[in-house]
Amino acid sequence: MKIEGPGVRLTIYIGESDQYHHKPLYHEIIERARRQGMAGATVLRGIEGFGASTRLRTTRVLSLSEDLPIIIELVDRPDRIEAFLPHLEELIDEGLVVRESVHIVAYRGRGGDQEGQAGGEG
Questions:
Q1: Mean pLDDT, 10 residues at a time, over the chain (122 residues)?
Q2: pLDDT for 77-98, tens place per residue?
Q3: Neighbours of 102 (CB within 10 A)
Q4: Domain for residue 121, yes or no?
Q5: What dihedral angle (degrees, nearest 10) is formed by the CA atoms of 19, 22, 24, 26?
Q6: Which residues touch 55 (CB under 8 Å, ≥6 apart)?
Q7: Is 2 helix (H, G, I), strand (E, B) or coil?
Q8: Is 114 among the domain residues?
Q9: What is the CATH number of the domain that holds 64?
Q10: Which spans in the chain are helix H?
Q11: Quick one: angle between helices 78-91 and 25-35, nearest 10?
């Protein structure tokens, strides 16, 4: 089954060493997204990058970093993304959040969302 509709991609850029209550911040963001019923989320670990501080973070052996870039992507309906934003305001002290309008095309098996909307369970 093919499901299409408007959506929002939320991309969150943080550091691997960022913490929330002594746990990785990316894990807390993913857990909250799951509990909120978001359609899905992905965490990517960067191999090199820099942020506002311009300090280079890299996986190169000669300058091995313990604070690699982390990118978290969530894609869902605009209303679900909007409802999730207050969680980020609470969790993120330093980072970047990018919100982009997208057109979602999702392919699901017969047991997928029957209402024809992106976002799965809502």
A1: 92 94 96 94 87 65 69 96 96 94 88 49 44
A2: 999 999 999 999 999 999 999 9
A3: 13
A4: no
A5: -60
A6: none
A7: strand
A8: no
A9: 3.30.70.120
A10: 25-35, 78-91
A11: 140
Q: Is residue 44 part of a domain?
A: yes
Q: Which residues pair with 70 in a beta bridge?
A: 14, 45
Q: What is the pLDDT of residues 5-18, one digit of tens each?
A: 999 999 999 999 89
Give pTM, 2 decimals: 0.78
**Parent domain of 14:** 2-107
Any bridge partners for residue 104, and if so which?
5
Angstrom CA distances, 85 to 64, 89, 92, 104, stand at: 33, 7, 11, 20
What's the total number of domains in the chain? 1
